[in-house]
Amino acid sequence: MGLVFGKITVETPKYDVLKRTTDYEIRRYAPSVIAQVTYDPSEFKNKKDGGFMILANYIGALGNPQNVKPEKIAMTAPVITKEEAGEKIAMTPPVITREEAKEAEKIEMTAPVVTKEKGKLVTMQFVLPDKYKKAEEAPRPVDERVEIREEGERVYGVVRFSGVATEQVVEEKVRKLKEQLEKDGVKVVGEHLLGRYNPPWTIPAFRTNEVMIPVEFSQ
Protein backbone atom coordinates (compact mmCIF):
# COMPACT_ATOMS: atom_id res chain seq x y z
CA MET A 1 0.00 0.00 0.00
CA GLY A 2 2.92 2.33 0.62
CA LEU A 3 3.82 2.40 -3.07
CA VAL A 4 0.22 3.14 -4.01
CA PHE A 5 0.35 6.23 -1.80
CA GLY A 6 3.73 7.35 -3.07
CA LYS A 7 6.02 6.16 -0.28
CA ILE A 8 9.65 6.10 -1.48
CA THR A 9 11.57 3.37 0.31
CA VAL A 10 14.44 2.78 -2.13
CA GLU A 11 17.85 4.36 -2.55
CA THR A 12 17.92 7.77 -4.24
CA PRO A 13 20.88 9.64 -5.75
CA LYS A 14 23.18 11.53 -3.41
CA TYR A 15 23.30 15.29 -3.79
CA ASP A 16 24.02 18.52 -1.94
CA VAL A 17 21.63 21.46 -2.08
CA LEU A 18 23.65 24.50 -3.14
CA LYS A 19 20.71 26.92 -3.22
CA ARG A 20 17.05 26.72 -2.26
CA THR A 21 14.29 29.16 -3.22
CA THR A 22 10.51 28.96 -3.01
CA ASP A 23 10.51 27.89 -6.68
CA TYR A 24 13.47 25.53 -7.15
CA GLU A 25 16.69 24.01 -5.80
CA ILE A 26 20.20 23.98 -7.19
CA ARG A 27 21.68 20.54 -6.51
CA ARG A 28 25.14 19.08 -6.99
CA TYR A 29 24.88 15.34 -7.67
CA ALA A 30 27.65 12.89 -6.84
CA PRO A 31 29.24 10.71 -9.56
CA SER A 32 27.32 7.55 -10.42
CA VAL A 33 27.36 4.47 -12.65
CA ILE A 34 24.48 3.92 -15.04
CA ALA A 35 23.12 1.23 -17.35
CA GLN A 36 21.47 2.55 -20.48
CA VAL A 37 19.88 1.47 -23.75
CA THR A 38 19.03 3.51 -26.87
CA TYR A 39 16.05 2.52 -29.02
CA ASP A 40 13.31 3.68 -31.35
CA PRO A 41 9.93 3.74 -29.53
CA SER A 42 8.32 2.31 -32.68
CA GLU A 43 9.95 -0.98 -31.68
CA PHE A 44 7.63 -0.97 -28.66
CA LYS A 45 4.35 0.23 -30.18
CA ASN A 46 5.56 3.84 -29.86
CA LYS A 47 5.94 3.56 -26.08
CA LYS A 48 8.79 5.79 -24.94
CA ASP A 49 9.40 3.57 -21.91
CA GLY A 50 9.61 0.42 -24.01
CA GLY A 51 13.30 -0.05 -23.28
CA PHE A 52 12.52 -0.55 -19.62
CA MET A 53 12.18 -4.29 -20.12
CA ILE A 54 15.65 -4.51 -21.64
CA LEU A 55 17.21 -2.96 -18.56
CA ALA A 56 14.91 -4.85 -16.20
CA ASN A 57 16.10 -8.09 -17.79
CA TYR A 58 19.71 -6.97 -17.41
CA ILE A 59 19.35 -6.53 -13.66
CA GLY A 60 17.19 -9.61 -13.16
CA ALA A 61 14.13 -7.72 -11.95
CA LEU A 62 11.62 -9.93 -13.77
CA GLY A 63 13.27 -13.33 -13.87
CA ASN A 64 16.61 -14.69 -14.99
CA PRO A 65 19.14 -11.84 -15.12
CA GLN A 66 20.75 -11.07 -18.44
CA ASN A 67 24.25 -10.41 -17.10
CA VAL A 68 27.31 -12.47 -16.33
CA LYS A 69 27.77 -12.40 -12.55
CA PRO A 70 25.21 -13.41 -9.89
CA GLU A 71 24.71 -10.47 -7.55
CA LYS A 72 21.70 -8.55 -6.25
CA ILE A 73 21.46 -4.79 -6.46
CA ALA A 74 18.83 -2.86 -4.51
CA MET A 75 16.35 -0.75 -6.41
CA THR A 76 16.78 3.03 -6.45
CA ALA A 77 14.71 5.98 -7.70
CA PRO A 78 13.79 8.07 -9.69
CA VAL A 79 13.13 7.13 -13.31
CA ILE A 80 14.57 9.95 -15.44
CA THR A 81 13.90 10.94 -19.03
CA LYS A 82 15.84 13.38 -21.17
CA GLU A 83 14.69 14.76 -24.50
CA GLU A 84 16.92 16.26 -27.19
CA ALA A 85 16.94 16.60 -30.94
CA GLY A 86 19.39 14.67 -33.07
CA GLU A 87 20.10 11.35 -34.72
CA LYS A 88 20.83 7.98 -33.22
CA ILE A 89 24.46 7.41 -32.36
CA ALA A 90 25.66 3.84 -32.65
CA MET A 91 25.74 2.08 -29.30
CA THR A 92 29.24 1.60 -28.00
CA PRO A 93 30.22 -1.53 -26.10
CA PRO A 94 29.78 -1.40 -22.33
CA VAL A 95 32.66 0.39 -20.66
CA ILE A 96 33.39 -2.55 -18.42
CA THR A 97 35.70 -5.55 -18.28
CA ARG A 98 35.03 -8.30 -20.83
CA GLU A 99 36.14 -11.42 -19.00
CA GLU A 100 34.07 -14.50 -19.72
CA ALA A 101 31.82 -15.87 -16.98
CA LYS A 102 29.95 -19.15 -16.72
CA GLU A 103 26.86 -17.86 -14.97
CA ALA A 104 24.55 -14.90 -15.41
CA GLU A 105 24.81 -12.21 -12.78
CA LYS A 106 21.63 -11.42 -10.88
CA ILE A 107 20.92 -7.87 -9.79
CA GLU A 108 17.86 -6.64 -8.02
CA MET A 109 16.12 -3.84 -9.90
CA THR A 110 17.61 -0.37 -9.69
CA ALA A 111 16.64 3.14 -10.64
CA PRO A 112 16.83 5.95 -11.52
CA VAL A 113 15.88 5.16 -15.00
CA VAL A 114 16.94 7.91 -17.38
CA THR A 115 15.41 8.39 -20.81
CA LYS A 116 17.06 10.53 -23.48
CA GLU A 117 15.18 11.30 -26.67
CA LYS A 118 17.24 12.02 -29.81
CA GLY A 119 14.69 12.87 -32.45
CA LYS A 120 12.54 9.74 -32.50
CA LEU A 121 15.00 7.80 -30.34
CA VAL A 122 15.06 7.24 -26.61
CA THR A 123 17.93 6.38 -24.29
CA MET A 124 16.76 4.88 -21.03
CA GLN A 125 19.07 4.65 -18.05
CA PHE A 126 19.06 2.87 -14.72
CA VAL A 127 21.40 4.49 -12.22
CA LEU A 128 23.04 1.68 -10.30
CA PRO A 129 23.32 1.76 -6.50
CA ASP A 130 26.03 3.81 -4.89
CA LYS A 131 28.18 0.78 -4.10
CA TYR A 132 29.24 0.73 -7.75
CA LYS A 133 31.91 3.42 -8.00
CA LYS A 134 33.33 2.47 -11.41
CA ALA A 135 31.78 1.08 -14.58
CA GLU A 136 34.01 -1.98 -14.45
CA GLU A 137 32.58 -2.87 -11.02
CA ALA A 138 29.10 -3.35 -12.48
CA PRO A 139 28.11 -6.69 -14.02
CA ARG A 140 28.62 -7.12 -17.75
CA PRO A 141 25.36 -7.17 -19.75
CA VAL A 142 24.52 -10.14 -21.93
CA ASP A 143 22.44 -7.93 -24.23
CA GLU A 144 24.87 -5.80 -26.25
CA ARG A 145 22.30 -3.02 -26.45
CA VAL A 146 22.92 -2.30 -22.78
CA GLU A 147 25.80 0.09 -22.10
CA ILE A 148 27.44 0.65 -18.73
CA ARG A 149 28.96 4.08 -18.22
CA GLU A 150 30.02 6.54 -15.56
CA GLU A 151 28.59 9.99 -14.95
CA GLY A 152 30.69 12.53 -13.11
CA GLU A 153 29.59 15.20 -10.70
CA ARG A 154 26.88 17.42 -12.19
CA VAL A 155 24.74 20.38 -11.12
CA TYR A 156 21.03 20.81 -11.84
CA GLY A 157 18.30 23.32 -11.22
CA VAL A 158 15.38 21.22 -9.94
CA VAL A 159 11.67 21.73 -9.40
CA ARG A 160 9.48 19.06 -7.78
CA PHE A 161 5.81 18.43 -8.55
CA SER A 162 3.09 15.81 -8.12
CA GLY A 163 0.52 14.33 -10.48
CA VAL A 164 0.96 12.72 -13.90
CA ALA A 165 4.02 14.01 -15.77
CA THR A 166 2.42 14.48 -19.19
CA GLU A 167 4.38 16.12 -21.99
CA GLN A 168 2.31 19.28 -21.63
CA VAL A 169 2.86 19.50 -17.87
CA VAL A 170 6.59 18.89 -18.24
CA GLU A 171 6.94 21.51 -20.98
CA GLU A 172 5.31 24.09 -18.74
CA LYS A 173 7.48 23.16 -15.74
CA VAL A 174 10.60 23.41 -17.92
CA ARG A 175 9.58 26.81 -19.30
CA LYS A 176 8.94 28.25 -15.86
CA LEU A 177 12.10 26.78 -14.35
CA LYS A 178 14.25 28.19 -17.16
CA GLU A 179 12.67 31.60 -16.67
CA GLN A 180 13.34 31.49 -12.93
CA LEU A 181 16.93 30.34 -13.37
CA GLU A 182 17.69 32.98 -15.97
CA LYS A 183 16.04 35.66 -13.83
CA ASP A 184 18.37 34.70 -10.98
CA GLY A 185 21.44 34.73 -13.23
CA VAL A 186 21.90 30.95 -13.32
CA LYS A 187 23.20 29.75 -16.68
CA VAL A 188 21.41 26.79 -18.31
CA VAL A 189 23.93 24.47 -20.02
CA GLY A 190 21.89 21.52 -21.26
CA GLU A 191 18.54 19.91 -21.90
CA HIS A 192 16.11 19.05 -19.14
CA LEU A 193 15.58 15.67 -17.50
CA LEU A 194 12.35 14.37 -16.00
CA GLY A 195 12.60 12.36 -12.80
CA ARG A 196 9.77 9.99 -11.87
CA TYR A 197 9.99 8.38 -8.45
CA ASN A 198 6.95 6.12 -8.41
CA PRO A 199 5.59 3.07 -10.25
CA PRO A 200 2.57 3.44 -12.57
CA TRP A 201 0.13 2.18 -9.95
CA THR A 202 0.85 5.02 -7.53
CA ILE A 203 -2.15 7.35 -7.16
CA PRO A 204 -1.30 10.44 -9.28
CA ALA A 205 -1.83 12.91 -6.44
CA PHE A 206 0.83 11.09 -4.41
CA ARG A 207 3.44 10.80 -7.16
CA THR A 208 6.76 12.61 -6.95
CA ASN A 209 8.23 14.06 -10.14
CA GLU A 210 11.12 16.41 -10.79
CA VAL A 211 12.27 18.51 -13.72
CA MET A 212 16.07 18.83 -13.71
CA ILE A 213 18.02 21.28 -15.88
CA PRO A 214 21.86 21.23 -16.08
CA VAL A 215 23.30 24.57 -14.94
CA GLU A 216 26.51 26.38 -14.13
CA PHE A 217 26.48 27.60 -10.56
CA SER A 218 29.10 29.12 -8.29
CA GLN A 219 28.47 29.96 -4.67
TrEMBL record:
SUPFAM superfamilies: Probable bacterial effector-binding domain. Transmembrane segments: none annotated. Belongs to the HEBP family. This is SOUL heme-binding protein. It comes from Kalanchoe fedtschenkoi. The lineage of its organism: Eukaryota, Viridiplantae, Streptophyta, Embryophyta, Tracheophyta.
